């Protein structure tokens, strides 16, 4: 069988039997991946600036992670945390207690980000006895029903599923795109005022269980919330007995140049939701909160068959060890600054580039909305033709986001950035 016919056979099977509901960005057939590169079944090599959507923080198939997975698979693959304890889950819970902010010391493990978000909403409702949830416009929290209900980055995610979950209210996220030219302090004041308006007109704060926020908005466009806004949110929650929940599914584990984005504002949430880079690719999510809060969650009120799978926990432990031992959090911060400086300079003078912004290795290149719908897909296609995989975000798809592995090799980075810059310049020269 030739490489081409093997590829065609896999594609045909996949097209016939995999549900088309999922957006598929390319039809490549991936065979192998290592570091920041992957190879397709027809033998082509690509650079990966997507990292499984911010999952592979230490790159694909890091030796130490592969070894940890193999070792645990040989010992046992599944047992069920409801039938006993095991070392990898206990060690990981202890490790998360150590590295997460403040006194967050107790963990419930799930299988994914969305599932952990649903669990966090259940925890908040059960513990406070209140029904209301406040989330933010532009936010993405996942595809399970609870997560879909609080997501507001596109109506397509909610269409046909309404009514989803009652008592969810959305406030504007404090991002400058909405109020361009307005000072950060004014944005904070405006957005806090909008929450107060929800309290005055829609739901009394004594009926709100939780306010949930991505400290840096991910899918909605790569916008960091001003630290001052997060600090004010903490005060607001404290004054009304509302639980503050951080969705750090995308921002956790060094992506923003700190272990957790919470550290940028110095605010500890009541509940921290983690997934994606937690385990570098093995399915795992976590709901981290103080022991006191978890103890108020009625026993048996939540659970999971696979949550805290021993192999996923082993992978997560290896992942965190590598992030720490190889100083990758610091690298994320420094490398991020370097890349933003380079892109600001190389893309200078292109009117259609609105902004290059970044916090650690969460980097966004935002395009003028009038041309984004045609330019962004073209840039992605051009990059792919030159063997670079990139992805976009933003509620109108206007931002190219870079999610490089934190340990990307200099040579691969250089090559990938050059392909990206060329794709942007070529596309914009046609658009203008
Ligand atoms: C901020 C955020 N929360 C939650 C999720 C959902 O995670 P999962 O796809 O693992 O359910 C995502 C996924 O992109 C995310 O970016």
General description of the model:
The protein is globular and about 60 Å long. It has helices at residues 3-17, 51-54, 63-75, 87-99, 113-128, 145-150, 184-201, 227-240, 262-265, 291-295, 310-325, 328-346, 369-385, 410-431; strands at residues 30-34, 37-40, 45-48, 106-110, 132-136, 168-171, 208-213, 216-217, 223-224, 243-247, 271-274, 285-289, 353-359, 362-367, 388-389, 391-393, 399-402. Helices cover 42% and strands 17% of the residues. It starts with a helix and ends with a helix. The strands form 4 sheets. Strands 4-12-11-10-7-5-6 form a 7-stranded mixed beta sheet, sandwiched between helices. A 4-stranded mixed beta sheet has the order 1-2-3-15. It contains 14 helices and 17 strands. It has 432 residues and is an alpha/beta fold. 48% of the residues are buried. The chain folds into 2 domains: 3-58 and 327-431, Aspartate Aminotransferase, domain 1, CATH 3.90.1150; 63-325, Type I PLP-dependent aspartate aminotransferase-like (Major domain) (Aspartate Aminotransferase, domain 2), CATH 3.40.640.10. The model has no long low-confidence stretch (mean pLDDT 96). The chain binds pyridoxal-5'-phosphate (PLP). Keywords: Aminotransferase, Pyridoxal phosphate, Transferase. InterPro entries: Aminotrans_3, Aminotrans_3_PPA_site, Class-III_PLP-dep_AT, PyrdxlP-dep_Trfase, PyrdxlP-dep_Trfase_major, PyrdxlP-dep_Trfase_small. It is an enzyme of class 2 (transferase). GO terms for molecular function: 4-aminobutyrate:2-oxoglutarate transaminase activity. Pfam families: Aminotran_3.
């Amino acid at each position: 069988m030739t490489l081409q016919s093997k590829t065609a056979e896999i594609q045909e099977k996949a097209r016939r039997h995999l549900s088309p509901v999922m957006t598929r960005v390319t039809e490549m057939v991936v065979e192998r991946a290592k570091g920041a590169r992957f190879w397709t079944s027809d033998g082509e090599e690509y650079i990966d600036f997507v990292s499984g959507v911010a999952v592979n923080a230490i790159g694909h198939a890091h030796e130490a992670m592969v070894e940890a997975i193999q070792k645990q698979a040989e010992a046992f693959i599944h047992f069920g945390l409801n039938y006993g304890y095991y070392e990898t889950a206990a060690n990981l819970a202890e490790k998360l207690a150590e590295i997460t902010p403040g006194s967050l010391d107790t963990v419930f493990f799930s299988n994914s980000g969305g599932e952990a978000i649903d669990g966090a909403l259940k925890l908040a409702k059960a513990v406070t006895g209140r029904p209301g949830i406040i989330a933010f416009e532009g936010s993405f929290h996942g595809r399970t029903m609870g997560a879909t209900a609080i997501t507001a980055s596109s109506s397509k995610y909610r269409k046909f599923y309404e009514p989803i979950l009652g008592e969810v209210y959305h406030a504007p996220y404090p991002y400058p795109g909405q109020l361009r030219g307005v000072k950060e302090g004014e944005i904070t004041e405006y957005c806090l005022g909008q929450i107060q308006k929800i309290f005055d007109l829609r739901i009394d704060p004594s009926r709100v269980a939780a306010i949930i926020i991505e400290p840096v908005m991910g899918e909605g466009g790569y916008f960091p919330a001003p630290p001052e806004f997060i600090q004010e949110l903490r005060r607001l929650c404290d004054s009304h007995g509302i639980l503050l929940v951080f969705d750090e599914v995308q921002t956790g584990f060094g992506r923003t140049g700190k272990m957790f984005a919470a550290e940028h504002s110095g605010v500890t949430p009541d509940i921290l939701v983690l997934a994606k880079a937690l385990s570098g690719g093995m399915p795992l999510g976590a709901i981290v909160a103080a022991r006191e809060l978890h103890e108020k969650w009625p026993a048996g009120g939540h659970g999971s068959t696979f949550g805290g799978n021993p192999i996923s926990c082993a992978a997560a432990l290896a992942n965190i060890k590598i992030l720490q031992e190889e100083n990758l959090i610091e690298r994320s911060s420094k490398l991020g600054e370097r890349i933003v400086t380079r892109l600001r300079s190389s893309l200078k003078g292109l009117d259609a580039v609105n902004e290059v912004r970044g916090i650690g290795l969460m980097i966004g290149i935002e395009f003028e909305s009038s041309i984004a719908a045609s330019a962004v897909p073209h840039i992605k296609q051009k990059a792919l033709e030159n063997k670079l995989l990139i992805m976009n975000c933003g509620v109108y798809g206007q931002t190219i986001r870079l999610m490089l592995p934190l340990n990307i090799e200099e040579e691969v980075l250089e090559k990938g950035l050059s392909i990206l810059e060329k794709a942007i310049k070529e596309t914009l020269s046609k658009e203008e």
